[in-house]
Design a protein that fits this description.
This protein is mainly α. The chain has three domains: about 5-60 and about 290-325, no CATH class; about 75-265, no CATH class; about 330-400, no CATH class. Helix content is about 55%, strand content about 5%. It has helices at about 5-15, 25-35, 40-45, 50-60, 80-85, 95-120, 125-135, 140-145, 145-160, 165-170, 175-180, 195-205, 215-220, 255-265, 270-280, 290-300, 305-315, 315-320, 330-345, 350-360, 380-390, 395-400; strands spanning about 225-230, 235, 245-250, 250-255. The strands form two sheets. Strands 1-2 form a two-stranded antiparallel sheet. The chain has a two-stranded antiparallel sheet with strand order 3-4. Helix 15 crosses helix 16. The longest helix has 28 residues, at about 95-120. It is globular. It starts with a helix and ends in a 6-residue tail after the last helix. About 40% of the residues are buried.
């Protein structure tokens, strides 16, 4: 059952300190670091007369703003279909290499496009949330190998990832990049592939300890029969290849993947798991169990509406507490995008910025594994510390963004 926006308002009021006074510069920096990619001098001036509430409402009001960065050129031309991807394996080595390099170039263009929108787009909060979901519902170009599928997935994150988690999860249940990444099309009646079923329960919804191995096996059976369309590579279900009959997942009888997702959405553990994920991304690495429970209850009762949850988090005492300031280690994307944004650097070719984030350990569109980037202190290593002064100092980024020739 969905409840009104008022329910989340009451939660936010109960958790937040009085938020009517104007923001101090350090408060603006804190808000825009967490809910965006840093504050420019112009941002500091603009937000100066705003209260916390007004500032958060401004960020939420921008979520539906159109993107300012033109789409990568490759999306407008004729695209290889599934037949082309299969046929290339029979071509001579030089043709296979050229085909692979073309796709890699397209993926790099996508990374540059996304970084450009993070830096100068109309809705930094939208891009922040999309990046959070990219690390939550992981897929990697290295395995997917189809830029079009990665593009559709990022578009899903940027759309439903700012609206409703239930709809986002349903979209993931029919996402081509996810299907290729977790081997759904290779699942067969006599040997259901459990990859997607396991990650769906463990990493995307319930969390460890809230399901059994049998639940995974039963959920995996519902995924047999899904293939990628030979034309546009969109998921399609072929009933004749599916495992017939009902399956038992978390004590409920289901017949298909959609049914599994609806059962998962009924579990309050899903609301708690997602709420904690957003807390970790936006507030601190130490969630408060009582506040998580309060936020998760309203989130669940709302039918998984995301905007009220994000609003409540950004207006909570915990978010504005001095203890939350400086608690999150910047990821390479935060460091690079934030540096360019703060210093107002003109970007000649954002693909070089994507290369910088890769060198520092965060390759957009290529998380290291199904768990995404671990984050936190894991961003700091002997390798990254050596690279940071040389490549991520503002002067180094300035040269990379302005003077280098575009990658071949």
């Amino acid at each position: 059952m969905r409840v009104s926006f008022l329910a989340f308002w009451l939660v936010a009021v109960s958790l937040a300190a009085p938020a009517t006074q104007a923001l101090a510069p350090e408060e603006t920096r804190h808000l825009l670091d967490r809910a965006g990619f840093g504050a420019t001098p112009g941002d500091i001036e603009f937000y100066k007369p705003l209260s916390r509430t007004k500032a958060v409402e401004k960020l939420l009001g921008e979520l539906d703003a159109p993107t300012l960065t033109p789409n990568p050129d490759f999306l407008t031309g004729e695209r290889p279909d599934a037949v082309a991807y299969r046929a290339i394996s029979d071509k001579p080595p030089e043709e296979r290499r050229a085909f692979a390099l073309a796709r890699q170039g397209e993926a790099l263009a996508m990374r540059g496009w996304w970084l450009t929108e993070m830096i100068g787009g109309a809705s930094p909060l939208r891009e922040r949330l999309a990046l959070i979901w990219h690390g939550h519902f992981t897929s990697a170009f290295e395995k997917v190998r189809v830029p079009d599928l990665m593009w559709r997935q990022v578009s899903l994150f940027r759309d439903q990832g700012t609206r409703n988690f239930a709809d986002l999860l349903r979209g993931i249940g029919e996402d081509g990049a996810m299907f290729r990444y977790l081997d759904v099309p290779s699942s067969r009646k006599n040997k259901p592939n459990e990859n997607f079923a396991r990650e769906l329960l463990e990493l995307y919804t319930l969390g460890t300890g809230n399901y059994s191995e049998q639940d995974i096996k039963e959920a995996a059976k519902t995924m047999v029969g899904w293939r990628l369309n030979a034309g546009d590579l969109r998921p399609t279900f072929i009933p004749a290849t599916a495992v017939p009959g009902p399956k038992q997942v978390l004590g409920e009888s289901v017949t298909d993947l959609k049914g599994v997702i609806e059962v998962l959405l009924k579990q309050r553990a899903t609301a708690r798991f997602v709420t904690e994920k957003l807390w970790l991304a936006l507030i601190s690495p130490t969630p408060d169990p009582a506040q998580i429970e309060t936020l998760a209850k309203s989130f669940y009762d709302s039918g998984y509406e995301l905007r009220p949850l994000v609003r409540a988090i950004l207006l909570s005492d915990a978010f504005w507490s001095p203890d939350a300031h400086g608690r999150l280690v910047k990821s390479p994307v935060d460091l690079v995008a934030g540096t360019v944004r703060r210093f107002g650097m003109p970007v000649k070719d954002a693909r070089w910025l994507a290369i910088e984030t890769r060198l520092l350990g965060q390759d957009l569109l290529d998380p290291p594994n199904v768990r995404g980037w671990p984050g936190g202190m894991d961003w700091i290593s002997t390798d990254s510390l050596l690279k940071t002064p040389r490549r991520s100092h503002p002067s180094g980024l300035w040269r990379a963004a302005r003077t280098r020739q575009p990658p071949a």
